[in-house]
């Protein structure tokens, strides 16, 4: 076989036209068919670039200068650490441009991976004000010579950048991070050192119930002992008047997983509450709860609309978490069955059903791909099945059961268009038709895309 020779070499300076944008948010230029990925470059731009890495089929380059800029380019990105922090990838692209890009990405992936053509992919539903939307912050600590710092890991590294403010976080969460940092400095609590596995404070997790104003502070520590506990609690309460829960989570392991197994309340309650539409939820330190509450309402309303419930339907909500979608659906269905793998989430889901006095929901702990086939064997039939799997998508055994059960409609909520496309192909081959697809922007300025798809039994 002829050796493939890259037409560029490392450190070469080039002038190129950017043709496309990857799902990761990098610009793409082609040199004699060879793809170069250029972070922060935008489609349509002429740019001066420097090649930094040459692989066999593709390479990477650095943006040196934009020679002709895209009309979608934002010249002054609002966040001062946008270039170092890996949290956002698209601040340099106008918000309208981001929404268009996400719609295009969904359409492309459905065609390329799912071979699903000629369906309506609606314009991405975005936010009026796409900043300060996150209700949860998880921030690591590190000890430096000048004292303790808290911030984000620099992109592709383990170096923590000290940070005072994150523009996609709710202000309340920013405040929590600053307060905990100040309190720890004042009292002399040392940050965790991941190399030596020493020190105490690993992460602070802040959760804010945007619609109730309640605030939870979680201190993740390396050991159970937390000196000056009382003092820490007093200081936090003094500086954050709307805090309703201060919780310690103990993570003794050498790992970059944030939470450990043990959680205890230091002060106040074990939960904070939040509402989405008319439904109220109790949220504990470790439960999964969508991070953009404003857009969650948009997403769930769309799922509910696609479910077309009249009040007589039996509905299954697979991958139900703390029962958020299940309870949303239960407002309009005869009976809802929710299934989820994390036992604590199911306890939360049951509590949430009681909290809302909803009696037409049943929750089960287990893998959706085992529990739903078992339900099927017991004679349970659903008119509508909603799935909201993690990034890897649905297990094939679950898709097989959906195909056998023949619900009138399937509503697929997805945080990964690629696995959505793969699964839609399987469902289409099994007798369903994808009717329409709605991208919802849950994560402005990042490259993440959320989608709801509606499928009809043929
Ligand atoms: N629908 C919920 C949660 C979606 S996140 C909401 O909108 O809040 C996906 C959920 O799937 C997580 O709670 C995760 O714990 C759960 N999960 C992951 N694998 C699973 C499996 N095989 N079976 C059931 N649930 C699973």
UniProtKB/TrEMBL annotation:
Against Pfam families, the record matches this protein to:
TRAM, tRNA_U5-meth_tr
Q: Which GO terms describe its molecular function?
A: 4 iron, 4 sulfur cluster binding; rRNA (uridine-C5-)-methyltransferase activity
Q: InterPro entries annotated for this entry?
A: MeTrfase_TrmA_AS (IPR030390), MeTrfase_TrmA_CS (IPR030391), NA-bd_OB-fold (IPR012340), SAM-dependent_MTases_sf (IPR029063), TRAM_dom (IPR002792), U5_MeTrfase_fam (IPR010280)
Q: Where is the TRAM domain?
A: 7-65
This protein's record includes keyword Iron: yes
Q: Which PROSITE patterns match?
A: SAM_MT_RNA_M5U, TRAM, TRMA_1, TRMA_2
The record lists S-adenosyl-L-methionine as bound by 290, 319, 340, 388
Q: What residues form the catalytic site here?
A: 415
What domain of life does the native source organism fall in?
Answer: Bacteria
Q: Which keywords belong to this entry? A: 4Fe-4S, Iron, Iron-sulfur, Metal-binding, Methyltransferase, S-adenosyl-L-methionine, Transferase
Q: Gene3D superfamilies, alphabetically?
A: 2.40.50.1070, Nucleic acid-binding proteins, Vaccinia Virus protein VP39
What is one Gene Ontology biological process annotated in the Swiss-Prot or TrEMBL record?
Answer: rRNA base methylation
CDD domains in the record: AdoMet_MTases
Q: Which SUPFAM superfamilies does the entry link to?
A: Nucleic acid-binding proteins, S-adenosyl-L-methionine-dependent methyltransferases
Per the record, the similarity remark reads: Belongs to the class I-like SAM-binding methyltransferase superfamily. RNA M5U methyltransferase family.
* Protein name listed in UniProt: 23S rRNA (Uracil-5-)-methyltransferase RumA
Query: Organism source for this protein?
Result: Anaerobacillus arseniciselenatis
């Amino acid at each position: 076989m002829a050796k493939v020779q890259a037409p560029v070499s490392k450190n070469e300076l080039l002038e190129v036209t950017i043709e496309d944008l990857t799902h990761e948010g990098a610009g793409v230029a082609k040199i004699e068919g060879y793809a170069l990925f250029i972070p922060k470059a935008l489609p349509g731009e002429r740019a001066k670039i420097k090649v930094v890495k040459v692989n066999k089929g593709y390479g990477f380059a650095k943006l040196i200068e934009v020679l002709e800029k895209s009309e979608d380019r934002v010249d002054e990105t609002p966040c001062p650490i946008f270039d170092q922090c890996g949290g956002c990838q698209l601040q340099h692209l106008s918000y309208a441009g981001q929404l268009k890009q996400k719609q295009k990405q969904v359409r492309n992936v459905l065609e390329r991976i799912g071979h699903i053509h000629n369906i309506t992919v609606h314009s991405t539903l975005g936010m009026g004000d796409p900043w300060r939307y996150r209700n949860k912050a998880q921030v690591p600590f590190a000890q430096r010579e000048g004292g303790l710092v808290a911030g984000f890991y620099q992109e592709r590294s383990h170096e923590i950048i000290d940070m005072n403010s994150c523009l996609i976080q709710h202000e309340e969460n920013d405040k929590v991070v600053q307060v905990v940092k100040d309190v720890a400095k004042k009292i002399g609590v040392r940050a965790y050192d991941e190399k030596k596995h020493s020190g105490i404070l690993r992460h602070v997790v802040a959760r804010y119930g945007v619609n109730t104003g309640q605030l939870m502070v979680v201190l993740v520590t390396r050991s159970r002992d937390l000196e000056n506990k009382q003092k820490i609690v007093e200081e936090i309460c003094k500086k954050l008047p709307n805090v309703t829960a201060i919780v310690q989570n103990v993570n003794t392991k050498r790992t970059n997983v944030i939470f450990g197994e043990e959680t205890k309340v230091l002060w106040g309650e074990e939960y904070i509450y939040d509402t989405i539409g008319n439904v109220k939820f109790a949220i504990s330190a470790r439960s999964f709860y969508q991070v953009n509450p404003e857009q969650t309402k948009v997403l769930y309303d769309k799922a509910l609309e696609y479910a077309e419930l009249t009040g007589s339907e039996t509905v299954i909500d697979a991958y139900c978490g703390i029962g958020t979608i299940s309870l949303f659906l239960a407002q309009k269905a005869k009976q809802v069955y929710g299934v989820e793998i994390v036992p604590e989430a199911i306890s939360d889901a049951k509590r949430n059903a009681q909290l809302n006095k909803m009696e037409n929901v049943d929750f089960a702990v287990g893998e959706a791909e085992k529990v739903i086939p078992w339900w099927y064997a017991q004679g349970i039939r659903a008119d509508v099945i909603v799935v909201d799997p993690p990034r890897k998508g649905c297990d094939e055994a679950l898709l097989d059961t959906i195909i056998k059960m023949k619900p009138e409609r399937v509503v697929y909520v997805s945080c990964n268009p690629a696995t959505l496309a793969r699964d839609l192909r399987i469902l289409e081959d099994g007798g369903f038709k994808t009717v329409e697809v709605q991208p919802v922007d849950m994560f402005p300025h990042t490259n993440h895309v959320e989608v709801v798809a509606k499928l009809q039994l043929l």
